[in-house]
Specification:
The complex is a heterodimer of chains A (about 130) and B (about 110).
Chain A (H helix, E strand, L loop, with lengths): L2 E8 L4 H10 L7 H21 L7 E8 L3 E8 L22 H8 L2 E7 L2 E9 L2
Antiparallel strand pairs in A: 1-2, 2-3, 3-5, 4-5
Helix pairs in contact in A: 1-2, 2-3
Chain B lengths: L1 E8 L2 E10 L4 H13 L4 E5 L3 E4 L1 H16 L3 E5 L3 H9 L8 E2 L2 H5 L3
Parallel strand pairs in B: 2-3, 2-4, 3-5, 5-6
Antiparallel strand pairs in B: 1-2
The chains are: A alpha+beta (about 130), B alpha/beta (about 110).
């Protein structure tokens, strides 16, 4: 039986507090590493929608976090009118001030999937529990 | 949520970052760096001991701060990163660019 946690709303900067609150409310005993790294990944994806989703401040999203026996899964479903062209971007050099988001996601996740369904973008994140 | 406490002495600024350094709170951090540079105190020690969370925007702001301070002959050093921040620095290979110091005293030694 998975623990399920959901929030929905408009992708504005203040919604990140609700993502942090969601992770603070997880009742299942996760390892500290799993908890902080999966929270990092989900904040990264939601932050991406907030920063880059268009129209800015109007994108609607749903976040579902599932705590399963063997893994953690998050699904972000949003209706922004734009989406990334290169989900396989490599980590930028040390002096780069941007571009670390997607490589960071891939470093903390076992699976990262992005797909389009109609007018929605769906991000699926998965991390095996340690 | 973020709270920044800034103190300066001579050309050294100590910036305590309490809370989360993420895309939601980065503007305040950048403003504090800009102020340190404008006030001719560009040797900035960033105390991360109370920074519970950082995302890639927060990392970008730290790197941006490093660039801004060095541009005017200063520097930026980080102090006592927490578990999540240390993990993110390592995963993005920035742990070799932003070497952590144990305390304000060791970080500002020699400035």
């Amino acid at each position: 039986m998975a623990g399920e946690y959901r929030i929905s709303g408009t992708a504005t900067a203040d919604v990140l507090e609700r993502v942090h609150d969601l992770f603070a409310s997880i009742a299942e005993p996760l390892s500290a590493t799993d908890h902080l790294l999966f929270e990092t990944a989900v904040v990264e994806v939601v932050g991406n929608v907030i920063a880059h989703g268009r129209p800015r401040g109007e994108v609607q999203f749903d976040l579902l976090v599932e705590v399963r026996d063997r893994d953690l899964v998050a699904v972000v479903n949003e209706n922004g009118r734009n989406w990334p062209t290169d989900v396989n971007a490599v980590m930028p050099g040390a002096s780069a001030e941007s571009g670390r988001g997607l490589p960071l996601l891939r470093a903390v996740l076992d699976e990262l999937e992005f797909r389009r369904e109609g007018d929605r973008s769906i991000w699926t994140l998965r991390r095996h529990r340690t | 949520m973020i709270t920044l406490n800034t103190t300066s002495s001579g050309r050294v600024t100590t910036l305590e970052v309490h809370g989360r350094l993420t895309m939601a709170t980065v503007p305040e951090f950048k403003a504090a760096i800009d102020k340190a540079v404008a006030d001719d105190a560009p040797f900035v020690a960033v105390d991360l001991s109370g920074t519970v969370f950082v995302d890639s925007s927060g990392l970008g702001a730290l790197i941006s701060g490093l660039r801004r301070t060095r541009q005017v002959g200063g520097d930026l050093r980080i102090i006592a990163p927490t578990e999540q921040v240390s993990a993110v620095l390592a995963l993005t290979n920035l742990d070799r660019v932003l070497l952590p110091y144990e305390s304000v005293e060791t970080a500002t030694d020699g400035w």
